[in-house]
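U., I forgot to send this yesterday:
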Amino acid sequence: MDIVGFFAGLNDAYGINLSIFYDAFDRDLFVEGMLYTAWLSVASIVGSLVVGALGAYLQYAGGAWSRRLVNGYVHAFRNTPPLVQLYFFYFALGPALSAFFPGTQPAVSNVTWAIVSLALYAGAFNVEIFRSGIEAVPQSTIEAADALGLNERQIFRKIILPLSTRISLTGLTNNLVNLIKTTTNAFAIAVPEILYASSQVWSESLNAMEMMVVLLVFFMVVIGLFTWLMRVLERATAVPGWGQA
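Result:
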């Protein structure tokens, strides 16, 4: 018996309705949701790492006003719920931008706002993670680079950032795992990610329990795989003797 026939028979015999495995429409909807979740995760992870590195650099090498601005950003995004931030960007800032660009409605899509919101939210935590990693780089290493004639930007880019990133990988893993889970907030502004797709499936097929189990298993697998990959990266980039007694 093929897979489609097996799951269709499972529904007929026991009422276990996993329609995404035997119904083409539900399956396509769910696959599209997975692709949107993957895109949200990858784009927001990359964006949050860029924001975190830039914020940490401004805290390290910027002036007093730069540090104040970064600290204000960090406090604002760390101390407010990510869903409220998403609503602010989509329902408040989005219409305001559309007023300046009347030819395009909307000026920024809901997917783009979700990525921006998620990247800035996780980026605020990444700033602090990178900052802690920078502070853990030995001063003697920085002084040695300075003695070799590297300027401040070169020291940060070639010495401090690579070392601090390695030091910060554990903290980054925890934050990025949380970011992947937070992508489900995009459901609130109708981004067709996996939670949104699943809700459409169970509203039509009346299989909420089965779809919630599928969602839980999906995120357990994705998060488990991502955590494993980050641990592999952490071991691969470890500096021999670094942090060892």
